[in-house]
Write a structure and sequence with these properties.
With 425 residues, the chain is mainly alpha-helical. The protein is built from 19 helices and no strands.
Length: 425
């Protein structure tokens, strides 16, 4: 095949962002199932899952240094090599050792750090290689590659892992096979990126920047953010809008897997993979696309309030399922999951206004706002505490509390006059 065709954005964009999403899906979604399957308590599992978001919070402190790296493709190849080695290490550890939760967490934390680094590099590389008008053409391609890879990693591979559990009658063998499949899938895109990523020509050359210097520059950015008018009420309103989603992020999986006698739905791993990883991700993608299209067509002023309202509706579906956990119906589960994730997708578009207000245009090419430091920071503490809170309250009361957060978020949004502050900035 002609090398110029291989270096076309239609080739390297899907390969680059598919390679990014496979390990990101592992540390963001699949890791929680792995912790649970290897005997980690609900409280510790949510703590580990939240801490895996910490690299996404800290990555902004490397922004200035990475931005001056020049030829990002070389660093992308290096980081992907390290990611491949790390994924191989996780697969070997699961297959040959007695798996301990904290050791698995350490391996996954290293992988999460590499994922955050890769996301930063790929975003800057994307912005360097394409002009703004070209980015508008390929943004949908980038998002589709990410979402389809997430469906395969979180959905299809989890379903396969569930079948492996039945076939091998061993959690360890099943997850060792699943991890091996993840390694194989990542290697395909890793090899394709070696061939398809073009080198920037006639672009900015690398400039030396010390780690201390880049941290200082980021602290100056934070200082400027603090001096913005009304920044506290804006951040406060976003926190309460995201609070129900942060509390649900991990606990919804506990609810699906828990036995009916304990208030859960008693689903299998295959059910979780199909409902959350396939139907849920599709619903989230459709909601995200619809919300973005509505904002473009009708303007942010009309859509902002509706999107903020819809964002807080997801807990109500889980509250309804928790009210009658004996009704274990896969079709009903998929419908409820579709509603919850569809609302989350539409509502998450409100971050498109909050993030530029706080961080200006730094994250304009971000595919998933969950990976933006501001959003990850606001969600981290509730995610870490959600397992303990769920264990104390029980599923019914916990989901009722999550649902009760919705009116609080609406009240704070109105009281802080967030809409007028952001739109008039």
């Amino acid at each position: 095949m002609n090398s110029n065709k291989l270096h076309s954005p239609w080739y390297w964009i899907p390969c680059l962002f598919a390679a990014e999403e496979i390990p990101s899906a592992v540390v963001t979604y699949v890791a929680l199932l792995m912790f649970l399957q290897f005997g980690t308590s609900m409280t510790l599992a949510t703590l580990y899952g939240a801490l895996l978001f910490l690299p996404w919070v800290l990555k902004s402190y490397f922004y200035s240094k990475v931005r001056k790296a020049g030829r990002f493709n070389r660093y992308l190849h290096l980081v992907e090599t390290m990611m491949f080695v790390c994924l191989m290490g996780i697969a070997v550890y699961i297959s040959e050792a007695t798996v301990k939760g904290w050791q698995l967490f350490l391996l996954l934390f290293v992988l999460s750090f590499l994922c955050a680094w890769h996301e930063l590099l790929s975003r800057l590389y994307y912005g360097r290689m394409l002009l703004p008008r070209q980015q508008q053409i390929f943004n949908n391609t980038k998002m589709m590659a990410s979402q389809m890879t997430l469906i395969v990693t979180y959905g299809v591979l989890i379903i396969v892992a569930g079948f492996f559990e039945v076939f091998f009658r061993s959690y360890q063998k099943a997850w060792a096979m699943e991890s091996s499949l993840v390694v194989g899938g990542f290697f395909v895109f890793y090899a394709l990126n070696m061939m398809t990523l073009p080198s920037p020509k006639g672009r900015e050359r690398s400039r030396h920047e010390t780690l201390t210097g880049t941290v200082k520059s980021e602290l100056q950015v934070l200082s400027r953010i603090q001096q913005k008018p009304h920044v506290v009420p804006v951040v406060l309103s976003l926190f309460f809008l995201l609070l129900p989603q942060a509390l649900l992020f991990n606990t919804r999986v506990f609810f699906l897997l828990a036995p009916v006698a304990e208030g859960g739905l008693g689903c299998s791993v295959q059910d979780v993979g199909f409902a959350q990883g396939t139907i849920g991700v599709l619903a989230f993608s459709l909601g995200l696309a619809l919300g973005r299209a509505l904002m473009r067509r009708y303007g942010v002023q009309r859509v902002f309030g509706v999107a903020a309202f819809v964002l807080t509706l997801s807990p109500f579906s889980y509250m309804m399922m928790a009210a009658a956990p004996q009704v274990n119906n896969l079709f009903l589960l998929c419908c409820m999951t579709f509603f919850a994730q569809f609302c989350f997708g539409i509502g998450l578009n409100v971050c498109r206004l909050y993030v530029p207000y706080i961080s200006e245009q730094r994250y304009r090419t971000t595919t998933n706002f969950l990976y933006v430091p501001l959003v990850a920071t606001l969600m981290l503490a509730p995610m870490a505490l959600s397992g303990w809170l769920c264990a104390v309250l029980g599923y019914r009361i916990f989901f009722f509390v999550c649902s009760a957060m919705a009116p609080v978020a609406w009240l704070i949004l109105i009281k802080c006059k967030t809409k007028s502050i952001i739109l008039n900035e």
